[in-house]
Specification:
555 residues, seven-stranded mixed β-sheet, six-stranded mixed β-sheet
Amino acid sequence: MRKRISLLAAGGLVALGLATTPAHAADPVFTLAGPAGIGLRPHPGQSGEPQKTSLAFRIVNDSAETFDRQSTFTIDLAPLKGIADVTLAKEQQGANCTLAAATVTCRRWALWSGETTVVDLDVSAAKDGKVGQSADLTVTGRAEGATFQTATTKVRVGGPDLVLDRAALKAELKPGDKQNLPIVFANEGTDPVDGVVLEVRTTHGINLLEQYDNCSYSEDTGAGQPWNTGWSTVQCLLEGEYEPGAVYGVDGPLTLKAAPHAFIDGLTYAVYAAGDQPKSANKRTPAGGKKLAAGKQAGKASAQSAPRTGDLDPWDNIREFDLATKNTADLVATGASLKGKAGETVRADFGFRNNGPAWVAYLRSGEDVARTDIVIPAGAKVTRVPAGCQGVNADGSHREQALGAPRYFCSTGHVVGETQTFSYPFELKIETVVADAKGSVTVGQWTPEGTTGHRWDPTPANNKAAFVINAKDGGPAPTPTTSAGPTPTPTASATATATASASASATGTGTGTTANGGLASTGSSAAAIALGGAVAVAAGGGLFLAFRRKAGGHA
């Protein structure tokens, strides 16, 4: 079994040393970095085979310039003799790194701006290594015309290992349903933990009802990566010492409730040694007089004081669960009726609104929730196209030129809020007056040819609306604008990508904003089904964590 400790994982703090020689004023200074410490499962590991932990060292180039001279990096493994065994990670082998005579040597021919990997090592406890033994592993660098700050990681046999039980939760819900989230965890490592942080994260359709004084509450409203957007985060500090071999249960209710707009939503819950939890911004702390605590449920081995190291297996600290609420979302197309004379340029907003009651979000895949298919009436030529829309041929096939297309596809982005409106502003020149020239606006699920109705949309009849120019029976006539000079080129005057905010509804030109976050189904709302068309996960399955880790944690 191989376990990965990334730059800021486990110990969580970057270990940065000082350069052994002063830098010349003109020489760049580069920083080497790695975790402050890692813990190793004592030999032979839980599976009977040594459990490998990945230790990554990186180089940080804070300048905007590429350093184009060869650099050499060295790690002396001698301090680990009898304590730990080290090999190059499989993906590292042959990648300009060698391991010979207890020394790792890596070469780089250029250092690009930002962070890059120097080396990935697989580290496991030696056969005769004893719990509590430790040694420092240091990486140094050298290059002509540059100075490197060293990095040191403490490698220790043993450490804490928080393991979280999977809660038995009901996966299929109705709006308003409530259920308790039981939290039971153990310390299966060799060292005690001084304080545990319980973290519960829910998407937009699921609420955690209770509030406790020793908990902080925050919401992620940044766009970020799709799977990070719009989560609500609760972090509770459970004080005390959590001893090796003991099992603990959280005292106090943690009630989950499906909101009226719930659809397909997600939940993650985790325990971390205090200080190792992900950082949250915009936190608020209530003052209601109630505190959440954890009580011991089983015996334990004797506690051992030890230097702080990372969790021996952080992947079993967190659990995920998919929640499917029986609900629907009614997408309603909005068309237009325009009037104008030959040579005039008119503006029209097309799009759709979500009449709810459910929100829809494809946070796992990042796919667009819906497409708006706009067919341009005869006699008119599009002279301005909003961002998020692409011109296509009449049959829906690819077209190089955006302007003057007979048809347009506009995409929503990965979230559609429960009362959100999408509006795409176009400008069209009336080249020839055609009485009662008719086009259309249709909203639905993407297909190669255009759109089709979503299975969760209860009223497909309102997915299509008319777009008419110079209707015989009149209609609203926007004020025409005269187009002077060259034909305008496409601009980003509007965007069709939904973004998250704390508002429950909004309208705009090309984008709508709403309280967002979570997951949504591409199929029936009555069951836990494939999310965003990307992956199928059974209720309680485990892909939330993978996406969170890929995205670098959460804000």
